[in-house]
Write a structure and sequence with these properties.
The protein has about 350 residues and is an alpha+beta fold. About 40% of the residues lie in helices and about 15% in strands. The protein has 3 domains: about 80 residues, no CATH class; about 120 residues; about 150 residues, no CATH class. It has a 4-stranded mixed beta sheet. A hairpin with a 5-residue loop joins strand 5 and strand 6. The protein is globular, with a radius of gyration of 21 Å. This is Zinc-ribbon domain-containing protein. It comes from Maribacter orientalis.
């Protein structure tokens, strides 16, 4: 994530901040200019000289304390781009629902930020029924009313997330039940949106689809049967030699979505390191493999080797820092050579190589 500053007092602020704690100014994020601006707290509409002198208001969801994005008044829209993707949200009179939704929105806004940095199309399904994207965030009451069993997942541009996933206790229980090493709201979003962009970027392009199959395998094999075999038998004992996770072994679509999410993880970590100017000079006898200098913007870097040669030692350092605080590794995965090939496919696809 990019580093931001209050434009009034130059205090460092973070992506989710609504107010600068140093000077008291309101803060708003412009997705078009990718910047946070300071706002006079005494008014509710702002003409901003640093944003082409246009007039802005907060997204309608600002009143729920879940969004600090700005909307240009000439667009005559209630919601910002990120919030316009919501098709279903939970009943907010329920305080527990409201709190879970807030955590979900924080993760979803980070997802949309990243999609925009990749210059990917982000279109609401309410505007484009066939090619758009939308989110259904469902509570236990929504599930009780449903005529069929509903789970977190993606189908035809609709990403469904059970808001119970925003409860860290529930999420940890499911993580243990599924024998997963990593489970977060942001991870869910990155995985599921990978399915959406497979449809948008690969499915209807004959050459790209051919290249995809040469790396990930034939996705036309029965998805339902493949998942059933996975749940019945589990992955092969040597799965780590070729896949980023156990679930990735189940079917090429899931291998793609898992690998896609990891590419997004790595890109975000690299952008943060780039903005902090992080580099390493390990104090060991043979330090070369752990040396890195995050001196580039990963969204613009075309060299996959540079991307990975910086990213892998950065992840090792990140894991080591967490262990120093008595926490689990934030990135408990092995990136094998076959996985690198899959990541390279995604890198080249997103960079137009």
């Amino acid at each position: 994530m990019k580093l931001f500053q209050c434009t009034n007092c130059k205090n460092t602020v973070v992506f989710e901040n609504h107010t600068c704690i140093n000077c008291g100014y309101f803060l708003g994020y412009s997705s078009y200019f990718n910047t946070i601006v300071s706002l006079d707290a005494n008014v509710s509409q702002w003409q901003l000289t640093n944003l082409e002198n246009k007039t802005y208001v907060y997204c309608e969801n600002h009143k729920h304390d879940v969004c600090n994005w700005l909307v240009e008044t000439s667009q005559k829209a209630e919601f910002c781009l990120a919030c316009s993707l919501n098709r279903t949200i939970p009943q907010l009179l329920d305080k527990e629902n409201s709190e879970k939704w807030k955590h979900i929105e924080l993760a979803k806004h980070r997802l949309v930020y990243q999609l925009l940095q990749f210059r990917l199309p982000v279109i609401s399904k309410m505007e484009d029924e066939q090619n758009g994207l939308c989110f259904d965030f469902l509570s236990k009451d929504d599930l009780a009313k449903a005529s069929k069993d509903i789970k977190t997942g993606h189908a035809n541009g609709v990403i469904t997330l059970l808001i119970s996933e925003a409860d860290p206790v529930v999420r940890e229980q499911v993580k243990k039940q599924m024998a997963e090493r990593y489970r977060t709201l942001l991870g869910h979003f990155r995985h599921e949106v990978g399915h959406y962009y497979w449809d948008q970027l690969i499915r209807d392009n004959e050459q790209i689809l051919k290249n995809f199959r040469s790396v990930f395998g034939d996705e036309s094999v029965s998805y339902v049967d493949a998942l059933q075999r996975h749940y019945d038998n589990g992955p092969k004992s040597n799965w780590q030699q070729s896949f980023i996770s156990k679930y990735a072994t189940s079917h090429p679509w899931e291998d793609w979505a898992e690998t896609w999410s990891h590419y997004l993880h790595l890109t975000d970590v690299l952008e943060t390191a780039y903005n902090f100017g992080i580099q390493t000079d390990p104090k060991i006898t043979s330090p070369e493999s752990l040396k890195m200098n995050a001196s580039f913007n990963p969204y613009k870097e075309t060299s996959f080797n540079k991307f990975m040669d910086t990213g892998i030692p950065l992840l090792y350092a990140l894991n080591s820092m967490n262990r120093s605080m008595g926490e689990d590794d934030p990135y408990p995965f092995i990136i094998s050579e076959p996985v690198k090939k899959k990541l390279e496919f995604i890198h080249n696809l997103l960079k137009g190589i």
